Amino acid sequence: MKKLAIAVAAVALLAGACSANDEASTSPSSGGPAVPSPAGSSATGTLTVFAAASLTESFNELGKEFEAAHPGVTVKFDYEGSSALVQKLDNGAKADVFASADQANMDKAVQGGVIDGQPTVFATNKLAIAVAKGNPKGIKTFADLNKAGLTVVVCAQQVPCGSATKKVEDNTHVTLKPASEETDVKQVLAKVQSGDADAGLVYVTDATSAADKVDKVDFPESSGAINNYPIAVVKDAPQAALAKEFNDFVLGAQGKAELTKIGFGPAQ
Amino acid sequence: MARPPHSRVPLVLWIPAVVALALVVLPVVGLLVRSDVARFPSLLISESSLAALKLSLITALLSTVACVILGVPLAVVLARSRVRGTRLLRSIVLLPLVLPPVVGGLALLYLLGRKGFLGILINALTGQQVPFTTAAVVIAQTFVAMPFLVVSLEGALRGSGDRYEQVASTLGARPWTVFRRVTLPLLLPALGSGVVLSFARALGEFGATITFAGSLEGVTRTLPLEVYTQAEVDVDSAVALALLLIVVAIVVIAVARPRSFEGGFR
């Protein structure tokens, strides 16, 4: 009997979790009337932003600034790989803004019919080599990564940082022999931080935001593989007006300042 | 050993039982519905999926062997030894079951990685690094799969009691003889199910592997990692691979099922 009670409780919990989820996903659209705020914004409520994992540090800051300028607004972020975010949107996830780490995934979202209007490129990123503090292995150039006895970790070609890596390899005719191809640039960084890899190819921005744990080695060939970061408002966004404002905010002066601080390049 | 005459299951248990079954079966059905069956053959025989399948089967087999070599003695110690602290030991052994696999991977990295104390020792003795090798995959899989074997065996040993062993020793059998002639035969049915469970768990291992061993085709990229990598660009291919993984797991369980599997959990 006790077991049955536990089972029933578990099922009830499951059911409760599901219904709570439903509420959460429907409430933004049925949110109260738009109340103009002193800062001139047109709405209050929760803004959901799907952003590429590499935007974590800069968008966290931008979110705080946006909230400060829009009283009554909370910005929530979901940071993941761009393709995972596109898949979520395709499967009906509710979001207001989508910021991708590459054009290919934004194109997929546009083709999937989940984007409202035209995406705009708001930043660019390029690769850098992350090495242990003090650069004990003396890595100075991209070709140095092929030195014997080095453990090098890169991104898999299937993800944006990996396709950029491939492009640099093609341009320089240097073929790397990585110990591992990670599916996430942060995993590459983690393996350099833990000391298990001597060097890893990451974005300039990742190396910059982890400056207290790794050193960054810039190399000129990286400018041959620039990644564009497009941003767009999601179709049927629960907070369409706010979404548009956040979009413009990222594209505006404040957004540019915050993104530059962490190493992003200007849109070209 | 004879089963009791057919007993009826209370009706009230059927409803949650059906819900429970649906919770397992329906997601797989969802995967099937979503899949592009026409493209299956071409998706599955790509070089990288075959490499991943081969690596998965080899590493899962090796880690199952490791589970048996290490797990059988551990289960016997836990079930039979009267040393103080075995209760605590038992809960520690179960740790990999409840730890998030990524945490397991990190723990392995901090032990066997280049800066881990055992890793430093191994590097000094052999000049080898453990992470990013196939051996690391096997270690990660053994780490997460072994509790399944130990739990099945220990449960069977406790369930059967130690009367036979006591009789054998009063008749003058040495401990090793008792283990070989009495304990081991008692274990056999449960060993079957434990082996299947740990093989299946090793086959599905993901988090500890990607964290500790990395992901490189033919070396460390097992089938679950290949699914994850493929999902970044081609969901159809990831779904096809996922179904392949499910088929392999079901085949493993079905093939190894004879009596032993059902006998294990009485």
Question: How would you characterize this protein structure?
Answer:
The complex is a heterodimer of chains A (268) and B (266). Chain A is an alpha/beta fold. Helices cover 40% and strands 22% of the residues of chain A. Chain A is built from 9 helices and 10 strands. Chain A has helices spanning 2-26, 56-69, 82-90, 103-111, 160-172, 185-193, 204-209, 240-251, 253-261; strands spanning 45-52, 73-80, 97-99, 115-125, 127-132, 152-155, 180-182, 199-203, 214-217, 227-234. In chain A, strand 6, helix 5 and strand 7 (180-182) form a beta-alpha-beta unit. The longest helix of chain A has 25 residues, at 2-26. Helix content of chain B is 76%, strand content 0%. The longest helix of chain B has 34 residues, at 47-80. Chain B is mainly α. The mean pLDDT of chain B is 88. Chain B has one domain (40-258): MetI-like (MetI-like fold, Orthogonal Bundle), CATH 1.10.3720. The A-B interface holds A 4, 7-8, 11, 81, 83-84, 87, 151, 153, 156, 158-159, 178-183, 187, 191, 194-196 and B 12-13, 16, 19, 109-110, 113-115, 129, 131-132, 210-211, 213-217, 220-221, 228-233, 235.
Write a concise keyword list for the protein shown above.
heterodimer; A: 268 residues; alpha/beta; D-Maltodextrin-Binding Protein, domain 2; 5-stranded mixed beta sheet; 9 helices; 22% strand; elongated; B: mainly alpha; MetI-like fold
- Record the strand order, biggest sheet of chain A: 2-1-3-10-4
Mean pLDDT of chain A: 86
The gyration radius over C-alpha positions of chain B equals 21 Å
Q: What portion of the residues of chain A fall into strands of 2 or more residues?
A: 15-25%
Distance between the termini of chain A: 68 Å
Low-confidence stretches of chain A: 11-41
Q: CATH topology of the largest domain in chain A, anyone?
A: D-Maltodextrin-Binding Protein, domain 2
How do the helices and strands follow one another from N- to C-terminus of chain A?
HEHEHEHEEEHEHEHEEHH
- Number of spatially distinct domains of chain A: 2
Total E-strand runs of chain B: 0
Most extensive interface: A-B, 24 and 28 residues
The coarse overall form of chain A would be elongated
| C-alpha end-to-end distance of chain B | 11 Å
Shape of chain B: globular
Mean of residue pLDDT values of chain B = 88
Our count of domains of chain B comes out at 1
Parts with pLDDT < 50 across at least 5 consecutive residues of chain B: none
Which CATH class of the largest domain in chain A? Alpha Beta
Summarize the biggest pleated sheet of chain B. Answer: none
As for the CATH topology of chain B, it is: MetI-like fold
CATH superfamily of the largest domain in chain A: Periplasmic binding protein-like II
Family (chain A): Belongs to the bacterial solute-binding protein ModA family.
GO biological process, one term (chain A): molybdate ion transport
Organism (chain A): Amycolatopsis carbonis
Binding site for molybdate (chain A): 54, 82, 185, 203
